[in-house]
């Protein structure tokens, strides 16, 4: 999966719900259609990020894992 | 004109029902969940704890908003929340939960969001007479007044037992379709859950807040009593590890697992730091009256670590501040317990 993000935000080292509150702050600043890449190492974010997208209507594009860090991709709707 | 409401949302059954009742009256509801910094799920995640089925503990607001299709915002209010904890105008609840002040603070934040998005009122799942401290009728009025939301807080589960609010008076919401629940019985809520198709929910007790946890409260009160103050860092550290108070007043925190080990590494430079040369927990220590630990204390801490470590020939070497090696010999539990800060111990004496 090769996705080019417009904004990258690093939330590694934090745990639920901080990666989500961070994502929410970044998404607020993003413009419609932009893609945000969120880095997190809280494994539970695998559940949280898709759930958050569901509750906010933003588009969850998926994730990849590199060296224990999850890279989530979300498009602002 | 379609009306909008902001809902305080914990993810618990009551706030879920409150949202459903209002949504069913054609109101747009935005659920907001506030992160205060005292979140039990956060600690469980940090420790790497999982549920029996292997899934992760999840923030209940996020979980149930997704399940039941509510728009949700999770908002970090931890910055100003510290002051609410340390200086509650209306005092503490059963543990250290400053319930009334906490509600006022959250409703103020909800009011800001209400104004920002152009919503008309705020709803919450509070039930009259359900909890001993914050939710009797007089505090509810104080909460409304101090948060600047007089007449604008609708509590759908107890509405019929409370004075009509602006949304009811103006006819945005039909009061007759709201509930009149009072007291601690959950019977009507469970019946309502069935009627509204809420088939899964968190257990009502506990929730995600440390401040209502009696073990947390015990550590808080102990530190306040011995040290005379609480810092923001203390509030975080109360959620981690086993806590000991040595005779001189030095506080020692020993991790319980790898997740906590990693967490305490973050404090290594600012605290006295102990790390076993082998399999075992790390520890941090904070002297009360000076910046230094004496030799006896260092030995005691090494022996405490040894108690929880895999020893070889009944001992383990412990590195102190990257400066020296101390050989720890495990204490027996009786010796250890004299310094342990625990609610369990206080109940025994």
Automatic annotation (TrEMBL), chain A:
Q: InterPro entries, per this entry?
A: TusA-like, TusA-like_sf
Q: Which SUPFAM superfamilies match?
A: SirA-like (SSF64307)
Pfam families this protein is in? Answer: TusA (PF01206)
Species assigned in the record: Sulfurihydrogenibium azorense
- Family, as annotated: Belongs to the sulfur carrier protein TusA family.
The organism's superkingdom is given as Bacteria
Q: What is this protein called?
A: Sulfurtransferase TusA family protein
Q: Which residues form the UPF0033 domain?
A: 10-76
């Amino acid at each position: 999966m090769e996705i080019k993000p417009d904004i990258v935000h690093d939330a590694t080292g934090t745990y639920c719900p901080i990666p989500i509150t961070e994502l929410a702050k970044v998404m607020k600043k993003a413009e419609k259609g932009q893609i945000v890449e969120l880095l997190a190492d809280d494994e539970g974010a695998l559940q949280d990020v898709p759930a958050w997208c569901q509750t906010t209507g933003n588009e969850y594009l998926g994730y990849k894992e590199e060296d224990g860090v999850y890279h989530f991709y979300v498009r602002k709707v | 004109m379609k009306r909008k409401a902001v809902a305080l949302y914990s993810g618990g059954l009551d706030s879920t029902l409150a949202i459903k009742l209002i949504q069913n009256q054609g109101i747009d509801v935005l659920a907001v969940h506030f992160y205060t910094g005292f979140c039990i799920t956060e600690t469980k995640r940090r420790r790497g704890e999982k549920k029996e089925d292997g899934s992760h503990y999840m923030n209940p607001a996020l979980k149930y908003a997704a399940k039941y299709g509510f728009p949700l915002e999770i908002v970090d209010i931890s910055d100003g929340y510290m002051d609410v904890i340390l200086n509650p105008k209306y005092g503490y609840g059963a543990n250290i939960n400053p319930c009334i002040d906490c509600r006022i603070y959250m409703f103020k934040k909800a009011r800001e969001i209400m104004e920002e998005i152009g919503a008309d009122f705020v709803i919450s799942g509070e039930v009259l007479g359900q909890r001993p401290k914050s939710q009797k009728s007089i505090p509810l009025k104080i909460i409304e007044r101090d948060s600047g939301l007089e007449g604008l807080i609708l509590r759908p589960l107890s509405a019929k037992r409370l004075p009509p609010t602006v949304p009811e008076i103006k006819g945005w919401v039909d009061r007759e379709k709201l509930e009149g629940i009072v007291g601690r019985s959950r019977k009507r809520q469970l019946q309502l859950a069935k009627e509204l198709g809420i088939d899964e929910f968190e257990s009502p007790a506990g929730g995600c807040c440390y401040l209502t946890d009696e073990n947390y409260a015990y550590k808080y009160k102990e530190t306040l009593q011995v040290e005379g103050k609480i810092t923001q860092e203390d509030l975080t550290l109360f959620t981690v590890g086993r806590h000991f108070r040595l005779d001189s007043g030095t506080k020692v925190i020993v991790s319980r697992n790898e997740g906590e080990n990693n967490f305490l590494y973050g404090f290594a430079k600012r605290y006295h730091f102990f790390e076993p040369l082998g399999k075992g927990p790390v520890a941090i220590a904070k002297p009360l009256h000076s910046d230094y630990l004496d030799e006896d204390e260092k030995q005691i801490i090494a022996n405490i670590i040894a108690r929880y470590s895999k020893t070889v020939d009944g001992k383990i070497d412990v590195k102190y501040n990257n400066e020296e090696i101390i050989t720890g010999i495990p204490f027996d539990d009786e010796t250890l317990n004299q310094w342990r800060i625990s609610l369990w111990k206080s109940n025994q004496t």
